[in-house]
Write a structure and sequence with these properties.
This protein is 62% helix and 5% strand. By secondary structure, the protein is mostly helical.
Length: 331
């Protein structure tokens, strides 16, 4: 929330906060006190979409104004996992040899680790990576050509003399080697939204909401009710806020741990199968392609599912088979 910009606009328009609050309260579905308005300025209570619409109408805010003032409210950021998901929406797809790729630095950022850790894991398990399948190693003329291709993105430093580019299979292998919850979760998101992108279902991006607010600013008072109806629909379908999203993630981790405990000792790979199973179920019941797209209105339904979740028969079978293979290996 950029309160200084909003207060500056109010002052430039020759208005006072008291005057503005009185004006926006004249709009239908808006009822906000001076105290609540100041809480919004202090980021203690996000402004609702209907209030943003009313402010846009009252102060004549442009699309850029709305984006710069309210962007953080419309697209909340918090823990590292959510930040990674938001950053992933902004990552430009880059191909090499026809394959979508990511750099070591990008993998480290998504997986919540360091570039050195990614490189060390690769060097220690080089025999598990096949060049051309899991990664591409570039140097010399190939690297120069790739630098030229990605110059505008700043993806590769001009001083880099050699680089590894990771394919989808390479990114998957690194997530398994790291074995952290974030690495498992983020590869799932990468697979859905980077390597196999799908059309977004809901029109809930900050820019789309800002355009809707601008539209309200240009319409007559007689049509404002219709616009606010659209806002109500957007509110019902808005992406789940960060506190609730974090609570769901914590409960997922707890539930997987509870189920894993019933099996006794399990490996990271087996735990990963449990995470994949519960993650797939959540996306299926909420009808979304990635957990980052869960809707606020589905929070309780998803939480109830997590509380009652048990792994599918297929997942149970995979875990038992893996355990049998583990038991049969010579000591």
């Amino acid at each position: 929330m950029n309160k200084n910009k909003l207060l500056g606009i109010i002052k430039t328009k020759g208005r006072t906060v008291k005057d503005v609050v009185q004006s926006i309260n004249n709009f239908e579905n808006v009822s906000i006190t001076y105290s609540t308005f100041y809480k919004g300025l202090r980021d203690e209570r996000p402004f609702r979409q209907s209030e943003i619409l009313a402010l846009s109408k009252t102060l004549g805010l442009s699309e850029d104004d709305i984006m710069s003032i309210f962007l953080e409210n419309l697209c909340p950021k918090g823990n590292n996992l959510l930040k990674g998901m938001i950053h992933m929406q902004e990552v430009q797809q880059v191909k090499f040899n026809g394959d979508l790729i990511l750099t070591t630095e990008q993998l480290a950022e998504f997986y919540g680790t360091t570039s050195r850790r990614i490189t060390d894991n690769f060097n220690a398990n080089r025999n598990k990576f096949i060049e051309g399948t899991h990664y591409f190693h570039l140097e010399g003329s190939q690297l120069k050509q790739f630098k030229n291709q990605t110059r505008k993105t700043g993806l590769v430093s001009e001083h880099t003399s050699a680089i590894n580019l990771w394919t989808k299979r390479g990114a998957s292998r690194h997530s398994k080697m790291l074995g952290t919850d974030q690495a498992w979760e983020m590869f799932d998101e990468l697979e859905e939204n980077y390597f196999n992108p799908k059309q977004l279902v809901l029109p809930t991006s900050p820019r789309e909401i800002a355009r809707l607010a601008l539209q309200a600013n240009e319409e007559t008072n007689q049509r404002l009710d219709s616009v606010e109806g659209d806002v109500k629909d957007l509110k019902e379908n808005q992406v789940i806020p960060n506190p609730e999203y974090s609570a769901l993630n914590r409960r997922v981790n707890q539930r997987v741990s509870e189920v894993a405990h019933s099996y006794g000792h399990i490996t990271q790979k087996q735990r990963g199968e449990l995470f994949k199973d519960i993650g797939s179920g959540i996306k299926k019941i909420a009808n979304v392609s990635a957990r980052s797209m869960l809707r606020k209105k589905d929070y309780q339904m998803v939480m109830d599912f997590i509380n009652d979740w048990e792994p599918s028969t297929a997942t149970k079978t995979i875990i038992r088979q893996t355990s049998l293979r583990f038991d049969k290996e010579p000591a």
